[in-house]
Structures are given as structure tokens and as C-alpha cells.
């Protein structure tokens, strides 16, 4: 073998390394080539004996002598394309060694090539390193950190407000920070101040405020979460009625629409309690007295707080804070509580609304079927219990009211109202009509009207979902008023 031929063969051997994939011999495993050197020699000799190989070697030698660029892979590809079918197998079908599973990305040897396979013209699959898509962080245990622009903007305001000889603010000076920096209702100022002033020093320094509000990532939270974090006690995951008392005290002390109450502490206390009861009545749908962040966000308390902070006439804030609404509730309770022991019994409640309630429904209320009493006195309803009752009675458009009266009529507590349960309460109403010499209305006629108006999913019963779905519960003379006629 001449020196030139030997050089060309060495070059091919360096590139291909006698890879069976390059020789297009899939029936020969790489392991067999490595463990059988003689097999390699036989294969190579057989390849050299092919006419196409002779032509390839001769053309490579001619190109080398002429000084032209040698493209070994292009010629080798052409030879393979023509001669691959003429290569006899070295193994019979019965004696061929088992093939090792191969990666779908091609041979690992292809990643060791010194030049791009596409540039060399060899038909190998290009092995590409899998690119990792960088997913930005979306969960932050302590809240999303503020952006640089937002942080600089807030720090500028903080520096201006805390620029005084004390390098801090007292509680009566802190309201400006609450409104301008934190964008919170002003009557949350005291609660925020005490949340930062954990040592009760009576002053909040600039550094302490920055540590809580900026470094604590409070400024990037939504408004509901900010208020929730300010009001809840350390280690708690919910709000209780006690957590709202500082907010109501400051509202009573600072709101111009409640200035006339400052000399009547009793009315101040009752007003604050009533507002809190109304908040939990509408927002705390689980009824366990623990208001969660989810419940706070789903309610409209935050919007009502903002409205109360902007509106000088507190009676225009119909949700939760109206003084007139409180006054009606409190006066009605005072009227029924004849001995003024701040409790109501069955005989007191039966007089509500000019004896509008039936004895059977009053018994259900005092059996605590719709809601467990907080009075802790046997057979007595406290002021909070009465607030829940009256809100359910006067506004039947809310889900809380629907649930209250549904539980009253659902005698067996199975979640459906049957005709027998509804007829049980209507019997007393029928007796009333007879006593007043009114023409009685058959229960079957009323039941038929109720079923038709509610359009129940089942004809033999009414579910709470049926009442909520129909969206007509708050309309006078609507389906729920007709159901309510069974009670009053």
C-alpha cells in the first residue's frame, strides 16, 4: 500500500473511527467492533475490495496531487449511497448479536466531530444541547419584592415625611404616612402604627417604617392583603372580631359624620359592635368567626372602607358603616328587650314586626338551627344574635339571608325542602287566615306557584342552590317571599 493511500486511509479512519453507523451497518454492534479487532480488519478489507472504493481512493489521490481541496466525506457519502446495498453481512440472521438501544438524538460520537456535520456534507443528525427555558420566579414567601423604581419613589416620600429632629413620627402625626405612602384608609393609621411600634415607644422611626413597609414587601401587596396583614395578630392566619375594634375606635374618633357620638360612649360601643357584626355576617360565610384572607377579598369591605374615608356623610356609606342602619337595628332590639337586660326570649321575639313571625319559626330560631347563639344563656338571644336575625329578615337578597331561612325550614337538615316541611310551617299561617275570616289559600296552590317560579331542578323538593340560582330572592312578592310566607 503506497504512502499516499495510507495517509488517505488514516484520514478516513480518524474521521469515521470505523463507526458502524457511518458504514451504515446497523446489524453490527459497536461492542462487536471493539472486542473483535480481526472483524474490523475484515470489514475494512472488504470495503477496500469494492470497485466503488477503488474509484474513491483514486479520485482522492488525484485531487491531492492536483492540489485541490479534498472532500472525503462527500465522496464517502456517494460511495455509501451506491455500495451500501452491495456490502454482504458478516453475520447470518441467526447469529447476529443483539443491538443495544440507541438514543433518538443520534450517536454520542457525533458530538465529538471537529467540524459541523452539515458543513462536511455528511448526513448525520445534528446533536444540540437542550436549551433550558428560564421561568421567572413567581412565588415569594415574604411577598414579591418591589421594583427599583417603586422603591425609590416611596423612599423619596418617606424621607420627606420623616424629615424632622426626632427622625420619626408620633401616632397623631402618622396619618399622613398612612394615606400618602401606604394608600390606606386614614382610620387604619393607629393599627398600622402599633403594628410597627412593637416596643410601644410611642414613636415610629424612619428606619423602622422602611423595615416593615419596604423591606417587608408590604408596598407590593394588594390592598386587601395589606389590611389583612396589618389587622391580624402575630401567628394568626385569620381575623377575629377583636381585630376590628381598633379600626372602629379610630373611625369614631376621627370621622366627621360620627362627631356627634363623642359624648355618648354607650352609643359608640353599640355602633362599633354593630358594624363588626355586619362585616362578619356578610363576609364570614363559614360562620366560624374567623375571617380568612380569601373571604376578605371576596367581600366588598375594602371598597366600603375607602368610601367611608372619602365620604363625610357616614349615612351614605350603606354597606356596614351607615349610622342610620345601626340606629334602626339597635332601637328595634331595645324595643323588644322590655326588661333591658340585653337579652331577648321567645315571647320578646314573637312581637317582632307586629307579630309577623309564627311560633313555629320562632321555636326554630331559638333551637339555634339557623345559627348558634353567642349569648351563652339558655333560651336567650343576645344583641349579636338579634343583628344576624334582623339582617336576614330585612334583606332577603343576600346569600346569608337565604341560608338563614333555608336552615329554619329544613327540619331534618338534609339540605332539601320537601312539601311536608313547608306544609308544617304553612299550617299555622292557614290557621291565622281562618281566625281573621280571610279566604284560605290551599297549600297545594302555593306550592305549585313556588315550584313554577323557582324552576327547581327536581319537582319534589327545593334546594338552596335553586333559591340562589333564580336571582329573584330580594324582590317583593318573589319566590323567596312566598317561601318566607310560610314563616311570617
TrEMBL record:
GO terms for molecular function: calcium ion binding; protein phosphatase regulator activity. Residues 92-116 have a biased composition (Low complexity). The keyword Calcium applies. Residues 397-432 form the EF-hand domain. It comes from the Eukaryota. Gene3D superfamilies: 1.10.238.220, 1.10.238.230, EF-hand. One of its GO terms (cellular component) is protein phosphatase type 2A complex. Keywords: Calcium, Metal-binding. InterPro entries: EF-hand-dom_pair, EF-hand_13, EF_Hand_1_Ca_BS, EF_hand_dom. Residues 90-119 are annotated as: Disordered. This is Serine/threonine protein phosphatase 2A regulatory subunit B''alpha-like isoform X2. It comes from Durio zibethinus (Durian). The gene is LOC111305312.
